[in-house]
Amino acid sequence: METMHELIPFAKEMLSQKPNRKMVKLYMLGSVLAFFGVVIGLVEAVCSPFTSQERLEEERKAAPTQEQMEQQQQNLILEKSKKPALMQRSLVTRQHAS
């Protein structure tokens, strides 16, 4: 409501002056962008319940269950334990850099 009280005197002042072409183009561009913003916001508000419901369904299908995650962790631990240990150089015995 505050904005309307500020906007009305501003519009009266702009109409009392003779605006040049650049200012008219600038105000028209701003008005068009604002209009598109409002339209996009309305479309998003109308369509958001449908998309959020679809996302929930997709997440339920795609998300692994707790049991699957535990099984994957166990498999990973088994794979790591089966790998032969790589021979590593002992850094303690080195006296200087080569």
TrEMBL record:
It comes from Nothoprocta perdicaria (Chilean tinamou). GO terms for biological process: positive regulation of extrinsic apoptotic signaling pathway. PANTHER family: G0/G1 SWITCH PROTEIN 2 (PTHR15570), G0_G1 SWITCH PROTEIN 2 (PTHR15570:SF2). Residues 57-98 are annotated as: Disordered. GO terms for cellular component: mitochondrion. It comes from the Eukaryota. This is G0/G1 switch 2. The lineage of its organism: Eukaryota, Metazoa, Chordata, Craniata, Vertebrata. Coiled coil: none annotated. The gene is G0S2. Transmembrane segments: none annotated.
